[in-house]
Amino acid sequence: MPLGARFRVGPDGVAGTNFALWAGGAEAVELCLFDDRGTETRLPLTELTHEIWHGFVPGVGAGRRYGYRVHGRWDPWTGARWNAAKLLLDPYARAVDGSFTLPAEVYGHVRDWPEQHVADTVRDDRDSAPYVPKAVVVHDDDDWAQDRRPKTPWADSVIYELHVRGFTKLHPDIPPELRGTYAGLAHPAAIGHLQRLGVTAVELLPVHQFAHEDHLLRRGLHNYWGYNSIGYFAPHAGYAASGTAGSQVGEFKQMVRALHDAGIEVILDVVYNHTAEAGELGPTLSLRGIDNRGYYRLQQDARRYADYTGCGNTLHVVQPQVLRLITDSLRYWVTEMGVDGFRFDLAAALARSMHDVDMLSPFLAVIAQDPVLRRVKLIAEPWDVGNGGYQVGAFPPLWTEWNDRYRDAVRDFWRGALPDVRDLGYRLTGSSDLYAWGGRRPYASVNFVTAHDGFTLRDLVSYEHKHNEANGEGNRDGTNDNRSWNGGAEGETDDPGIDALRRRQLRNLLTTLLLSTGVPMLVAGDEMGRTQGGNNNAYCQDNEVSWLDWSLLEEPRWRELTALTARVLALRHRHPVLRRRAFFAGTPQAPDGLRDLAWFTAQGAEMTEGDWYAPAATLGLYLSGRDIPGRDARGGQITDDSFLAVLHADHRPCDFLLPGPPWARSYELVLDTSREEQSTAPGTLHRGGSALTVEGRSVTLLRVAE
């Protein structure tokens, strides 16, 4: 104990490394040490305690490369796939040296067997050691004593989803040798942009060590997003500027510290639902060769894997050793790497008991009682691809969720496709229909319009169809349900009218997102008009298609969009009524008898039940700041300005009758998305009861002046 490779000085004063590997059904385990020339030395681990093979090796210190060979039966028909010819990565490896290229030698079976339907049953006895990366012993006694975590409350959080490599690869103010790396993200030029925007947390696409899929390598492509993990403790070596002999660990920590110093939390997108070993025809890299039946869910035909992820396999989370692997990994990233939370890819797969999704599953139960993990930010992608896998709104307290129903409703409203506005009303105000149970709060909803998976925001208003030909899959990959509208032309256009309309739609979507109750999530580059040329599944595009084009900020039109994003975020940070910690009651909360939330038609009348069931392109949302639930730091009542937001999705202007007393005697214009530049918009006063001309396809935000 603990599992993995840990350098220490023994009680007799001898320094060395203790190696420990869980391999429940194995017959023998060999530790394989490699010197700088690649020469392998095999040491049998003869100690076996509680299914853990272990041994202390004197003289082995930081930087030493190693792997395991695990002996056992080859019997794929019963799920046994031991093959000691394959060098295996330590599941607890803290650093990985080298990359996975997946030649035929790294497969436990004969990959190119002529009869592919039985290829997985034919054992391949070629040595894989020359072709696979090695784990690295890391000695790290950093105690984080000087680190100051921001600890931003959920209600005040604004998440910015980014890719470590893509965000920094083309940044002109980051030194070339640091671009695309953890050190690049820690650079003041990168952090300065985040600070100017006003985001409070970065959500990093997977940074666990991952491998590239064989089908991509055969097409000359690579896995860019990283949702193909193989090392749950190791920072992905490809993002390190300092080398891969263990220094990537320190570089990652320095990045976290730099972000913390800027008041920005670090959330990791983690993939514990499957691994890079894929299905029965996949490579043998780690868990499959250690104990296939112990780590993976198998079908009744034990040759086959239960696949709730669409990636070939699913980790068997109800098994204690698998659950321990995941929770040990999570605690490691919190306590030793400094991160502040996690977004769980396909979290419903982790919540499955034997087959069905179970909100009392071992995984969720362990997280709920863990003294470390229950205190960090936990975000579920609340679905998987199996039966009953869609679980939006069902995760227990402590969890927040990606809310795809918010995404769909907002997209449909601004493209004129909502049959009525019932769903939109819930989404704009925290989705109480989904989350107002069990003491959950509005910030249980992570609101987003775009994510890494799908169109960028600019492409959402420029393309009605995906254009994924560059992925080499005949444009069959990626969703067809884009809920997008191109404004009259597919793709880039020279038509100034369409171009202006698209920029207005971008302003509408961003403003709607940032004014909605819940936790907003932006995608890196959306604030400056990043495009992927209509590719809505750029998972394998490690190039200019996916990298953030910082030259966009040299164009006035995109600088203005960035400025608007920062402006609305600053408004959100200043006004607690825009980041409520409790759901709206819809009933009188203040002494004057006004409700905390009211909805208005374009005629200035409060919406009736019938109005909610009718198509509508214009919606007035009144947010009262007179009496906000909760107390300030001194126990006092929280009060704020009141606001009226008018969302108008029709292409024609309309006269919106502003609600008069008791709602307001006058309103001050705060922003108007029909304007390219907002500096000329604020300050204009409008009398309550008067008609305000609202331009077509725009958001108008007004503050109650008196």
List segments where confidence is low: pLDDT < 50 over at least 5 consecutive residues.
none
Strand content: 15-25%
Question: Kindly, what is the distance between the CA atoms of the first and last residues, rounded to a whole number of angstroms?
Answer: 66 Å
Largest beta-sheet characterization: 8 strands, parallel, barrel
Total number of helices: 16
| Average pLDDT number | 95
Radius of gyration: 27 Å
Structural category: alpha/beta
Major sheet strand order:
12-13-16-17-18-19-20-21
Helix % is 10-25%
What global shape is seen? elongated
Extended strand count: 31
Can you describe this structure?
There is one protein chain. By secondary structure, the chain is an alpha/beta fold. Helix content is 21%, strand content 20%. The protein has 16 helices and 31 strands. It has an 8-stranded parallel barrel. The model has no long low-confidence stretch (mean pLDDT 95).
Q: What's a concise summary of this model?
A:
With 706 residues, the protein is of the alpha/beta class.
Could you give the topology of this structure?
Elements: E1 4-9, E2 15-22, E3 28-34, E4 40-44, E5 47-49, E6 52-58, E7 65-71, E8 74-75, E9 80-81, E10 96-97, E11 134-136, E12 159-162, H1 164-168, H2 182-185, H3 188-197, E13 201-204, E14 208-210, H4 214-218, E15 229-235, H5 247-261, E16 265-270, H6 287-295, H7 320-335, E17 341-344, H8 347-350, H9 362-369, E18 377-380, E19 399-403, H10 404-414, H11 422-428, H12 432-435, E20 445-447, H13 457-460, H14 496-515, E21 519-523, H15 556-574, E22 597-600, H16 609-612, E23 618-623, E24 628-631, E25 637-638, E26 643-648, E27 654-657, E28 666-672, E29 685-687, E30 691-694, E31 698-704
Parallel strand pairs: 12-13, 12-21, 13-16, 16-17, 17-18, 18-19, 19-20, 20-21
Antiparallel strand pairs: 1-2, 2-6, 3-4, 3-7, 5-6, 7-11, 8-9, 10-11, 14-15, 22-23, 23-26, 24-25, 26-31, 27-30, 28-29, 28-31
Helix pairs in contact: 10-11, 14-15
